[in-house]
Amino acid sequence: MHPNHLGWLALGMMAGLMVGAIPGFNDTNFLAMMLPFSIYLGPMDAVIFMMACFCSSQAAGSIPAILLNIPGTPSNAPTCIEGFRLTRKGLAGQALGVSIIASTVGGILSACFAVVLTPIVGIYALSFGPAELFMMAVFGMTAVGSLTGKSTLKGLFSSALGLFVACVGTEFQQGYTRASFGFYELFEGFPLIPVLLGIFGFAELFSLSKEESLVSEGVKRFTGYAPIFEGIRIGLKHWKNMIRSGFIGILVGLIPGTGAAIATWVSYGQAKQWSKEPEKFGTGHYEGLVASDACNNGVPGGALIPTVTLGIPGSGTTLVVMAALMINGVTPGPSFFGEHATEAYAILFSLVAANLLLLPIGLGVARIATQVTAVPNRFLVPIIALFCMAGGFAWRQMVFDMYLVVIFGVFGAILTRWGYSVPAFLLALLLGSLAERNFVWAVQIGGINSFMRPIAFVILLATVGVLALPALLKKMESQGKNRNYHLEDKKLNP
After folding, report:
1. Which of 295-299, 301-305, 332-336 has the lowest mean pLDDT?
2. Residues 405, 197 contacting (CB under 8 angstroms)
3. 253 pLDDT more than 70
């Protein structure tokens, strides 16, 4: 609570809000740039600044996702699916309100969980070996693939297509390149940011260019704080979904090498699985938005646990935080709480404070951001295209990536047009390299028996259950319709 520390906390919040809202430039890049300056700040101020930036950037990435269908960070991709559809219905304020309250609750839950259980829970992250991580990747792809898209078959085909695209690049063991067609820009595979900007942001331009306004014709626009507060009330009605999604973010964040980009897709798929109205997902449904953003801000607390207790960073951003600590002579690990208890709890409580500040700061930002919906499409379309191109270029400073934005924009429009699952494709692309590496390592270490270990086997059973779920739901739905038909028939013909 020292004024100096609170100043760096507020500065980190503002920096995170700006960084998170810029497509193609995420908190990891920004904090890596700030790393040399951490020597002059000292470990306490440096880490407080970084944790505040981490927290606020996760939430701020939802703003362009909701308003422009451009994910501010890779983890905000599921937010685009529901948030932008709500904006098109004239409900941008409500969507931002839902996003703010879901991010705040998920973040506070995550931070409190980290404060209380970090010394205890961190050690269990080591229980996930290559076999468990591979099965986790398969479960995520199967869940999203089977529960999204117009049919289970199209959803699973979309996942397979994403895995095929993920194979492009250098093979991690032998070092030979696959399907790069001589382009050195593809030696590391398809970069994630240009793909995301293309398949969400650029793909939407084809439909927006045919209309006069971002908000559909005949829909009344609302400005001011009223719709935002209404969104907050709507979000609180889904408190069970919010808490469940926050815990999913914490649990996935606990597993080193996963991160928010994977967690939000898992949470989105689980929300659809638990929902009473799964058919509304993808049309602008508040449940999907709550699941995505509560999980997104639930990840930082979970990712921080293995970082400070085991010295194993749970995400790219926590890797930078860990580097800042080590530069200042503080080494995370099993003895961290014994030797550096003050710094350890300062890190955790700065995360709590940052999430408490997120609600009031987010309200002010959302009030200004909703004005985007009043801009005519003839101005907005070229602005979105420029943001997509600039974001694609900013990731690696390569003109080639700007071409990828256009190519995947066309590809995304085709997938949507024919009813294939964009989420399933993206998650498979994201998890492809993780699944490949861990499958090879698991087989080399223990052979096929590696996948029979208790945790891996439980995840395998869950995967089979998710595959069978769509057929079971359809059967239950048809039985319900037949029952209603017979009841109505009895009423008409007693």
Report:
1. 332-336
2. yes
3. yes
Domain count across the chain = 1
At 106, which amino acid appears? G
Question: Residue 14's Cα: distance from chain center in Å?
Answer: 21
Flag whether pLDDT at 395 surpasses 80: no
- Residue recorded with tokens 């700040």: 41
Q: Is 70 helix (H, G, I), strand (E, B) or coil?
A: coil
Q: SS3 sequence, 376-396?
A: EHHHHHHHHHHHHHHHHHHHH
Helix extents (H) in 21-42: 27-34, 38-41
Residue 50 has pLDDT above 70, yes or no: yes
Look up residue 152 and give its amino acid.
Answer: T
Parent domain of 443: 3-492
Percent of the chain whose predicted confidence (pLDDT) is above 90: 2
DSSP annotation of 125: G
**How many other C-beta atoms are found inside a 10 Å radius of the C-beta of residue 302?**
31
Closest CA to 30 of 13, 48, 44, 15: 15
Q: Tell me the C-alpha to C-alpha distance, in Å, between residue 62 and each of 72, 289, 427.
A: 6, 10, 18
What is the distance between the alpha carbons of residues 316 and 319, in angstroms, rounded to a whole number? 5
Beta-ladder partners of 213: 376
Three-class DSSP labels, 89-122:
CCCHHHHHHHHHHHHHHHHHHHHHHHHHHHHHHH
First to last CA, the chain: 74
Provide the total of helices (H) and of strands (E) in the chain, helices listed first: 22, 2
Closest CA to 145 of 135, 155, 160: 155
Q: How far apart are CA 99 and CA 403, in angstroms?
A: 32
Coil vs helix vs strand at 31 = helix
Tell me whether residue 1 is exposed, middle or buried, using C-beta atoms within 10 angstroms of its C-beta: 0 to 12, 13 to 18, 19 or more: exposed
CA separation for the pair 377, 383 (Å, rounded): 9
- Residues 6 or more apart in contact with residue 455 via CB below 8 angstroms: 127, 128, 132
DSSP string spanning 159-180? Answer: HHHHHHHHT-EE-TTT--EES-
Which value, to the nearest 10 degrees, does the dihedral of the CA atoms of residues 312, 317, 318, 322 take? 90
Q: CA-to-CA distance for 268 and 280, rounded, in angstroms?
A: 13
Tens-place pLDDT, residues 186-198: 888 888 778 878 8
Greater pLDDT, 397 or 368: 397
What is the residue type of 101? Answer: I
Reported as half-sphere exposure (CB side, CA atoms, 13 A), residue 316 has a value of 14
Q: Say how far apart CA 260 and CA 362 lie, in whole Å.
A: 20
CA 255 from chain centre, in angstroms, equals 15
Pairing mode, strands 177-178 and 169-170: antiparallel
